[in-house]
Amino acid sequence: MTPTRRPALLGRRPVLGLLLGTLLLGAAAQTTSQRLEQLQSELQQQRAQSAEQARELQKLRSRIANLSSQQKETLARLDALAGSITNLENDVATLNARTALAEQALSDTTARRQVTEVRVTRLQNDVRQILNALYRERSGRYLQLLSQASSLSDLLIRLQYSNMAGQHNTRIIETLRGEVRELQTQQAQQESNARALREVQNQRRTALAQLQTRRQEQTQLLTTLRASEQGQRTLAAQTQAEQALTARSIDQLVGQVVAERSRLEEERRRRLEEERRRREEEQRRIREAQERARLEAIRLEQLRVAQERARQEQARREAEERARQLAAQREAEEAAKRQAQATAQRQAQAAAQRQAQEAARRRAEQQEAQRQAAERSEQQRAAQAAAQRARQQQIQQEQAALEARRQQVEQEQTRVEAALAPLPVQTGPQGFPISSGQVSSPYGTNGAQWTVLQGPEDAQAVASQAGDVLAATYYASLGWVVLVEHSSAVTVYLGLQDPQVRAGQRVAQGTPLGRVGGSPVFGPGRMAFQLNRVQGATRQPVAPGF
């Protein structure tokens, strides 16, 4: 069996990666025969070795020693391919995790950028309206406001409000500048995240291609070996050697991980705590932005109501002015008629006609001027109403974007809080790791400290209890090995393929961990399960109760 290193997630969890990377480090370059010899040497130093174990191990070593040079070379090629496949499997798992993190980082940055873009668009329109108003009115409104003061105190009050309006406009412009800088930063971050994602995706494709090539080489070599009697003997010797090494490998792997359990948990909690603080800070910023948007929406509604009242008042004054002017015109016309009657009939008629024509002309000009003024006023009111509606729509879009982001952050925060919560004390029965599965070899069979389980083809292994994933690593002989920590126990799932979890992940009881049948030692449709009672850095394998 070839040892491996655990996949690290973007360098965020190096502790376990170093731990499993150094596990059986010297054995990485050893042949099967050399590892068997080392195992026998270790067992001889332990008084617990039985005579039967010693005889079986010696027989196995002799069988490998009696292989021909060609068979030994083939066995070395199998060992090398297994080691290469092991490393590539773990590399692919690492890259899968890095891809998921890069996708999450890109998604977060994109969501924040969308919120900022909506806010920048609204502020740009605000600044555009301010500049248009300044260009259109110049200083006329300002001087008109000050000239209408009835006293010195009234003048000072009007001056103060004018300055406040100017300060408000200045704040809007400064806010826009800050938001544009933030948007540029987020755009750069988004591009950086996209590049990182493309890079890790390319690395993953390369690793997958290499893994496929090595597996094809392994399949071709195994097919060739199975076609001859000599090759079958070579494969049998290798299989027996891997079976002999299984117990030692499992014991070392689980023992090392359990010994490092406290450091792994500390690293996991530190990482989650950092993420929790980041989410809290973003939630605070979102709440502040939502409050600003809410107040702006209220201000816009108040402004709309005030503008509507002003429009109605202006319409009333204009109607009164038109009525007054019409009455004056009629009175002038009546006076002209009376004057015409007092003069000579002939001259009076001509003068009256001229006066009537002149009065009609002036009335028509005045009516046209009033019509044009009313039309301009109506166009201005319509433009103001359209701008008001557009601004209200922008505020609503900003509020919708903020609410969507708030819900995303809240979901992530809930997940982090759940992961930081202490594991509950397990009081219920141990769940069976395979749905519709059964025990193939009970705990303790031939001295084994695990239970071999069998299930339907492509059956999923599931977490027997809720817990935190301590490690997920690949071994050539054991397949994928997943270790899950519980409140006072560690469960080990061996012989998996297509792992569904990663180190640091919290799983509920029944969460899929991977498909069974990934170990040549346990065979197709099978896996091994080990339950360890843990106290501090010590562990004790126990029967699982099924």
Question: What are the SSEs and their pairings?
Answer:
Elements: H1 14-22, H2 32-44, H3 51-65, H4 69-137, H5 140-147, H6 152-226, H7 229-259, H8 261-342, H9 345-420, E1 438-441, E2 451-454, E3 460-462, E4 467-475, E5 479-485, E6 489-497, E7 506-507, E8 512-516, E9 526-535, E10 538-542
Antiparallel strand pairs: 1-2, 2-9, 3-8, 4-5, 4-7, 5-6, 6-8, 6-9, 9-10
Average pLDDT value? 76
Shape category? elongated
Contiguous runs where pLDDT drops below 50 for at least 5 residues:
1-29, 42-50
Number of helices: 9
CATH fold call of one domain: Helix Hairpins
Category by helix and strand content: alpha+beta
The largest pleated sheet is described as:
10 strands, antiparallel
The SSE order reads HHHHHHHHHEEEEEEEEEE
Query: What is the C-alpha radius of gyration, as a whole number of Å?
Result: 42 Å
Distance between the termini: 28 Å
The proportion of residues forming helix, as a percent range, comes to 55-70%
CATH architecture of one domain: Orthogonal Bundle
CATH class of one domain: Mainly Alpha
β-strand amount: 5-15%
Number of strands: 10
